[in-house]
Amino acid sequence: FLLGRTPELSVRELVSCQLEGKLLTAQVYQVERDSDDETRLVEQFNQLGGSLKLLKVVGEFGDLTEEDLAKYVVAYFAQFERPTFAVGELYRDHLPKLQPSDIKQTLKAQGVSSRFIESPRDGLSASVLLHQEVEELLVIRLDDQQTLFAKTLAVQDIDEWTVRDRQKPYADRKKGMLPPKVARMMVNTGVGELARASDATPVLYDPFCGSGTVLMEGMMLGHQVVGSDLDQIAVAGTTANLQWLQETYDLAGEYTVFQADATHVEASQLDEKPNLIVTEPFLGKPKPASHQLPNIFRGMEKLYLGAFRQWRTLLQDNSIIVIIFPYAQDGQAIFSLESIIDKLATLGYTPTSDPSLYHRPQAVIQRQVWTFQFKKSVGEANAR
User: Fold this and answer.
1) Which residue from 103, 224, 277, 381 has the highest number of Cβ atoms inside 10 Å of its Cβ?
2) CA separation for the pair 197, 316 (Å, rounded)
3) Is the pLDDT of residue 379 over 60?
4) Does residue 23 contact residue 198 with C-beta atoms inside 8 Å?
């Protein structure tokens, strides 16, 4: 698996989806499977938000000269009839680039007609691979003694992600939009953690639903979804987005959206007790001034504690919460909500792993993705 911009979060998603493996490099994650599992792996890959390409190792080499490397690349493409090919290279920036024109000429000399698509050094983009029949080979240099050849089996369907991100009827860019891919990673992580904790069917609730991105990705995966928001405009917008999603993708899933304050929502407002919360609370202005940060984080601490306290009355035992915490750094000063983790433990919420940091370039408020398991007995004991 070639991982996206947030490798740590991508790995958490993969492990949650029962794709345990090992990191070969910061962006290459290896899962060992039989060739018979290839179709199933492609299906699983298409459910992910955090992996860019699914690769299959087709060759493993020790200490290679550049001349031998070029010969092996030619030999690989020579097995195809009239191939259209591309070559990508990872972790070889300090070495000479493999020239596709040279590969084409050598193939021609061997009687193999071919054409190539010029690509960036690290390989073709998903958009090119989606729309053209290309045999892409990635040459991955792990170290001086190990180089892998990997063919591209599948790529992220960038067109579909763009449709859901940009063509849905309602969006509020001022509030800071959670990218659909991050929402998908969070949902997959939560569903996987829930499967470990119980046999229950996921009932996914987002108490800060905003424009409904989390709910949309949950519905795309076939889950029952429930959302609420303090803002009635957001409730109407989320409802419109979910209706649009059902019509666009011919989905039959159930959903409920209603107006509620996340710190005061009542169990009676929900048709069924949720066992999975996936959410991004409102994190304030996208670009606050430095002097505003202390007050912003004090306000968010109060909001988060209030919400977690109230959710105890809603959640099933062994529920999972995947939630974004704000994080900011101003010079030497670090602002976060890690100070509330011990307080959350007394309420019955235990972190299941360390947080993963996600942020857009230039963002002042960054995102930490936390995952908690809720134990009702702990929360009730400490409430007495």
Assistant:
1) 277
2) 11
3) no
4) no
DSSP annotation of 137 reads: E
238-279 pLDDT, tens digit each: 999 999 999 999 998 889 999 999 999 999 999 999 999 999
**What are the beta bridge partners of residue 151?**
56, 137
∠ CA 186-367-371, nearest 5°, is 40
Query: What residue spans of the chain are helical by DSSP H?
Result: 7-16, 38-45, 66-78, 100-109, 126-131, 158-166, 180-197, 213-220, 232-249, 293-311, 341-346, 376-383
Cα 266 to its chain centre, rounded Å, is 31
| AA identity, residue 229 | D
DSSP secondary structure of 342-378: HHHHHTTEEESS--EEE--TT-SSEEEEEEEEE-HHH
pLDDT digits (tens, 9 = 90+) for 271-296: 999 999 999 998 877 788 899 999 99
State the DSSP string of 242-253.
HHHHHHHHT---
Q: How far apart are CA 56 and CA 41, in angstroms?
A: 10
- Structural domains in the chain, CATH included, are 2-156 (3.30.2130), 160-383 (3.40.50.150)
* Distance of alpha carbon 363 from alpha carbon 283, whole angstroms: 12
Query: What per-residue confidence (pLDDT) applies to 282?
Result: 87
Q: What is the pLDDT of residues 40-90, one digit of tens each?
A: 999 999 999 999 999 999 999 998 888 999 999 999 999 999 999 999 999
Alpha carbon dihedral 179, 46, 206, 234, in 10-degree steps, equals 50
Q: Which of 163, 165, 140, 160 is nearest to 150 (CA)?
A: 140
One-letter amino acid of 315: L
DSSP H helices, 207-278, are 213-220, 232-249
- Distance from the Cα of residue 109 to its chain's centroid: 45
Order of strands across the sheet with 2-3? 2-3, 51-61, 146-155, 135-143, 84-90, 115-116
Say how far apart CA 256 and CA 205 lie, in whole Å. 9
Per-residue pLDDT band for 222 (boundaries 50, 70, 90) equals very high
Share of the chain above pLDDT 90, in %: 83
